[in-house]
Design brief:
By secondary structure, the chain is mainly β. 0% of the residues lie in helices and 54% in strands. It is globular, with a radius of gyration of 13 Å. The strands form two sheets. Strands 2, 4, 5, 6, 9, 10 and 11 form a seven-stranded mixed sheet that branches. It has a four-stranded antiparallel sheet with strand order 1-3-8-7, with no helix packed on it.
């Protein structure tokens, strides 16, 4: 059974930082491309960051230089370090296993973690 559990969200002021975690259960985490998505109210879910098996990364332009995705294959966990947060980063953040570094979620979605950035 595959499962994704996101955590680490919260309320933060603009300019602040948060670190999200994604604990994955299921087969062979280290062979999977991982990604973080977000969905703001009234908007479509968008891919924010992805990390390939070898560690190469991909980011949406709006978060480049502010967010950093990483992974720990021993702990079966992916992370999203978010710095210099802006109100427009407010959304529910989800992680998933991806088909490629530009998208293609493969597993059932978890519950997500809410990130709220106040101005």
């Amino acid at each position: 059974q595959v499962q994704l559990v996101e955590s680490g969200g919260g309320l933060v002021q603009a300019g602040g930082s948060l670190r999200l975690s994604c604990a994955a259960s299921g087969p062979i985490f280290s062979t999977k491309i991982m990604g973080w998505y977000r969905q703001a109210p009234g908007k479509q879910r968008e891919l924010v960051a992805a990390i390939a098996i070898g560690g190469s990364t991909n980011y949406v332009d709006s978060v480049k230089g502010r967010f950093a995705i990483s992974r720990d294959n021993v702990k079966n966990t992916a992370y999203l370090q978010m710095n210099s947060l802006k109100p427009e980063d407010t959304a529910i953040y989800y992680c998933n296993v991806l088909k490629t570094v530009v998208g293609g979620p493969l597993w059932p979605w978890g519950q997500g973690t809410q990130v709220t950035v106040s101005s």
